Amino acid sequence: MRRHLPALVSLIVVAGVLSVLPFTLSSYNVALAAQVGILFIAVLGLNILTGYTGQISIGHGAFMAIGGYTTAVMSRDHNTNLVVTMLMAFAICFAVGLLVGLPALRLSGVYLALATFALAVSVPQIPLQYSTFLGGSGGVQSSRTVSNLWLYTAAWTCSAILFVLAWLILRGRIGRAFRAVRDSEIAAVASGVELPVYKTLAFGISAAYAGVAGSLFVLATNGFAQPTEFDVFLSLQILIGAAVAGLGSLWGVLVGAAFVGLLPQVSTSVPLIGAEHGRDVVFGAAVILIMLLLPGGFAGLLARLRRLARA
Amino acid sequence: MMEAVTSPLGGLRARGVSMASAAVVYVLLLAAAVTLLVGSLESTRFATLTVSGVAVGAAYGSLALALVLIYRATHVVNFAQGELGMATTYVAYQLIQWGLSYWEAFFATLAIAFVLGAAIQTLLIRPVQHRSVIGAVIVTVGLFILIDGIVNWIWGSGIRFLRSPFGGGSFDVGGVQIQHLYVGMFGVVFACVVLVWALFRVTKLGLGMRAAALRPAAAALVGVRVEWMLALGWGLAAVLGAVAGLMYEPTQLFLTPTLMQQALVFAFAAAVLGGLESPGGAMVGGLAIGVFLELLAGYLPQVVSLEVPFAFAVLLAILLVKPAGLFGRREVSRV
Q: Do B138 and A128 touch (CB under 8 A)?
């Protein structure tokens, strides 16, 4: 228990701040904070796959798209309760993730990265072809919109549940197997880890997280699922979030999500460059700088500070 | 040394199998070439589509080759390659606006691209590349966003026009109209690729670059300036990317900051198809994808919005049969 004390204290502090936050912020900022919560879930999911299992994915935007369209279509056609659609998004994306994990058994490293990149590029094109069911380029409007406060509460409740779930998964037998696969596939197999089971499982869990994030993401855009919202940039954003957070640690995820969620918003008001383009210039430059200065991301910085404090 | 070939047959037998499958790849490629030739002789429409496919495919191949050069040298997949090509195309546009002729601007742009590529490697990639591959990849993702922002900032997101250097005429070959543009595109890309190949194969500098890429430590011991060679490699890759951008631009109606985003996706596919480590494979992959897409759009216009997913489904199917691409070798690693 003593070992987990600092972690527990910081968790309680973060949870406390998050539950007070909506009462002090303006409605716009509540929406922004909800956006950070949504990215938190996606980055957390990617970290399970890339950080803990060592499988790079540049395609998490695709899973978010699947989750988002699940919510929008179910809500449009059956007026389903939104929480139920989130659970459906979780389940469907888990299944799709398992399927996508199958090719990952044959592909490794950079080939896998590019295959998932292909997924990120391809999935947003599908609604254009099946426009009666998936709304074409105009998108799907779900039957209900939610308030910013609802969204904030939903996003951070999901974040909390999924964070605890991730912690439980990663601390036990499954997490050990994941890390073994990451460190050396051959050694993992030799120690009796069934590679096919754990690789596809990591993909499934990770995709399910992205699915929930996508579901909330659609609700955040006024319940409107559109192909352009799920472009490659979204996948890259999640990957950047995971890298800034630091791969293979749960503690940096909040910082990574805040970085990708807030910086593009904050930097629209840069002087000199102008709002429209300043965002990309500042965001791109910040990503490069962080990677140069903090190669291990925020988690790496924490680990270094902890070592300094002990020495 | 322990070989980690996943085949239960072990190293020697696995090599025999891979030689047999290489033969299959060559036979299939030959069959595809013969099909294209026969089809082109049979139908004018088929021939027109094949020619434009080859020309666009050459541009994809050039960009794919740039990716492969960098991947071979540093095991980094450069996401910014396409945006670099787009930015240098804008530079050429600006030079022409300032009164240079097209070809003066072309060569000046290649020189600028070279310096830019080498500078990026020296300043941004070198500090991270030894620490982690994913860190270097994220840096290139950051560059992608940064370059996009800078181009939008300087030139705006509106459309610009860059005059095609080859005019609008066409040759008549047995009833098939072949645009000057396509012949010119293919010719320029081909010339550049041959020059790069010659640099690597014939010159001492090229030998040094290959040594630095394959065995950095050993190359350094025999006096190769490894870091310079890597910077040079990035410079050359940027030149190829610039050629790709300049040659690809006339096939689009106008110049916008999103010029190379689709092209990058297909260049990735081409590089992976060819095996990522194989420069020849990248060119073959580029041509194959160019022709495939052009024929698909020509004969199955109803699936045109599924063009990208379809291309990737085929790519994935090929990768599942040959996980290291058509010309790639399976990596054998020490455990």
A: no
- Please write the tens of the pLDDT for every residue from A47-97: 999 889 988 888 899 999 999 999 999 988 888 888 899 999 999 999 999
Q: Cβ(A15)–Cβ(A160) under 8 Å?
A: yes
Backbone angles phi, psi at B7, to 5 degrees: -70, 135
Backbone angles phi, psi at A182, to 5 degrees: -65, -45
**HEC per residue, A67-93:** HHHHHHHHHHHHCCCHHHHHHHHHHHH
Nearest chain A CA: its distance from B50 CA (Å): 24
Sign of the torsion formed by the C-alpha atoms of B123, B127, B130 and B135:
negative
Of chain B, the percentage scoring pLDDT greater than 90 comes to 26
Q: Cβ contacts (< 8 Å) between B276 and chain A: which residues?
A: 110-111
CA-to-CA separations, A93 to A70, A81, A212, A214, in angstroms, rounded = 9, 18, 8, 10
**Spatial CB neighbours of B177, under 8 Å, sequence gap ≥ 6:** B48, B170, B171
Q: In angstroms, rounded to a whole number, what is the distance separating the alpha carbons of residues A22 and B171?
A: 69
Distances in whole angstroms, Cα of residue A103 to Cα of each of A97, A100, B72, B316, B323 = 11, 6, 24, 8, 9
Tens-place pLDDT, residues B110-123: 999 999 999 999 99
CB contacts < 8 A (A, B): 138
Q: Are B292 and B306 in contact (CB under 8 A)?
A: no
* Global ipTM: 0.85
B150: chain A residues, CB-CB within 8 Å: 277, 280-281
Cβ–Cβ below 8 Å for A125 and B308: yes
Residues of chain B neighbouring A113 (CB-CB closer than 8 A) = 77, 137
Burial (CB < 10 A; 0-12, 13-18, 19+), residue A302, is middle
Query: Among residues A291, A261, A285, A260, which one has the least CA distance to residue A273?
Result: A285
Backbone angles phi, psi at A173, to 5 degrees: -60, -45
Written as one string, the DSSP assignment of A262-304 is HHHHHGGG-TTT-HHHHHHHHHHHHHHHHHHH-TTHHHHHHHH
CA distance B315 to B36: 19
Residues of B in Cβ contact (< 8 Å) with A111: 272, 276, 319, 323-325
User: Is the distance from CB of A87 to CB of A158 less than 8 angstroms?
Assistant: no
Of B143, B261, B305, the CB nearest to A125: B305
What one-letter code names the amino acid at A238? Answer: I
Alpha-carbon span A289 to A294, nearest angstrom = 8
- Choose among A50, A128, A284: nearest Cβ to B143: A284
Share of chain A above pLDDT 90, in %: 34
Structural domains in chain B, CATH included, are 10-321 (1.10.3470)
Instruction: Name the pairing type of β-strands A140-141 and B170-173.
Output: unpaired
